Sequence to fold (279 residues):
Amino acid sequence: MSNCQTLIMRLLSCLLLATLAAAAPRTEAQLTGDAAKLHQNARDTGRFFADAAKLKPEVRPTTDGKSYCLIWKSVPAPKRWIVSLHGAGRPAKGFATDDLAIWHPHLKNREVGLVCLQWWLGTGDTPRDFLAPDQIYREISQALDALGVVPGTVMLHGFSRGSANSYAVVALDASKGRKYFSLAVASSGGVSLDYPPSRALLTGAYGERPLKDTRWITVAGGRDSSPDRDGIPGMKRTAAWLKEQGAIVVESIEDPASGHGALHTNPQNCRRVMEAFLK
Fold:
């Protein structure tokens, strides 16, 4: 082989390696500053970080560099997507990595992609310690747009405090956004009318009746420790409120034997949601 041929082969090899590197999923090593610290917090204190890491999700920093989202695909080109907002207990703590690990068993053999946003910022329990609904939607919309997701093919899921914020996030998508969501799932997180995002929705910040014609499933457990807010009574009240806003409640799943997080603790509940989303 001549020197010229050798040089060409080397250049082609470098080009191939560069292409593969560009196409490879980004990992937490590319996070910096606050986002890297938050991811390390999930590694150190999250319940299911190791399980999530085995799935090798793509990790993308948020636009402000304060947090990140995880992107996982069951197939190379999913036709449907789920966006999930994790819960946050008291004292506040919640991680997208745990959310990914919890969702994964329910997505086997389904052509679905999953975006889990780390919307708790890893410090305290004040509004400043969470992304606000407009920030949440900004990050969701940017991620879905970058992935080439078709509007109307996404299910938004919110658990607990994530659910409490989902009403405003869906309102933003329906009134001012890309109309990505064909279905929203409010899991163990009822609407609180004095909660700032809910007040903004009701006072017209997202337009007039922004939830009109949006589609919902509510999920509740009969053994929830906060029944009037997040349990069956709380989610019954929430379903009625959604209907008052002009929304369509496709189904209300009430599981007397389950507690907080009945959607995922009982696989049958999650199966019902997935069937409603994918049919």
In short: The two ends are 58 Å apart (CA to CA). The domain at 46-278 is CATH 3.40.50.1820 (Rossmann fold).
